[in-house]
């Protein structure tokens, strides 16, 4: 079947992998750029901003992001990925530039919220593209490659922010100018590479015919009963816990290392980036194994989640920098970016194939709700106790609860 070939001989699904990986790099350079330089932002705005208020910068971004998940997923199914992604990234670029011009914390909140709205167009579009275009036997591994863009962007965002702003004493707005430029480049790339809705529909029709020829039975339509079945609901809970731990760590780890563990200068960004970079080999390894042992995906998911929780526990309990760094590297290797491709692949096998964008939107909505809560809650805990350690403990407990619930509902299904 040649429907997945491109005129130049380079398969469309491979172009999609490169494009979407680059999209995550761009998003995560923006997402991770501000947290290492909260003190510099604070100083530029008068120096009297609390940790709760600084943590709310990330919360406003994720609030906009979460609000867009279900509408964006619905629009992806109705009008196509291209028509959702391009306007979204135009809003994203405007928002990043607005933050660079901010003279108050309120203006930063406004820009962050708009950036979240713009980025909210990406998730449903991206994983609808992977679900509908990548060969089935390569989906987990290909999704891991796409997700590795998150790790690369997060790592580079922290390193560049720490180096350019903290080490080189450039204005903190420098990172927003860089983000704006990258976002514009990605918008152009989306316009050039992604198929129009008409071509995309033609591809899906051909794919459906091919599946009929080999005797595959189409899945049921998407409905409230399938979206919110007990199995799906506990998957959302698990993803909520996974995202809570990750976004709490991404938002506050640089500050935690600097204020509570004595790290200084570029060492803060470099140490924090290890979580992201360590996730790349973890994601590629475990997704490859999950593709090979497809009937063991639930086991992979639960074991990785529990081990990630254990590594976070070691992080806060570590008595010296060496143990702390080892725990951070292992959390990256085993954590969200490593397990997420397997969860998405599992979801694709158990969720309705019709309305993929809507299903992914609901899934990501519940997961990303945690990213609204975690930064502000951890900041509030820090203001009240003088430490962010309790924030780590909350993340650990949520991971354990989510894993147990997910395992219980899937084990029950096997017994039945």
From TrEMBL:
Its main location: membrane. It is found in: Cell membrane. InterPro entries: MFS (IPR011701), MFS_dom (IPR020846), MFS_Na/Anion_cotransporter (IPR050382), MFS_trans_sf (IPR036259), Sugar_transporter_CS (IPR005829). GO terms for cellular component: plasma membrane. One of its GO terms (molecular function) is transmembrane transporter activity. It holds the Pfam family MFS_1. It comes from the Bacteria. It is a multi-pass membrane protein. Residues 16-414 form the Major facilitator superfamily (MFS) profile domain. The keyword S-adenosyl-L-methionine does not apply. The keyword Transmembrane helix applies. The chain crosses the membrane at residues 12-33, 53-72, 84-102, 108-129, 141-166, 172-194, 227-247, 267-286, 298-318, 324-347, 354-377, 389-409. Keywords: Membrane, Transmembrane, Transmembrane helix, Transport. This is Major facilitator family transporter. It comes from Candidatus Enterococcus testudinis.
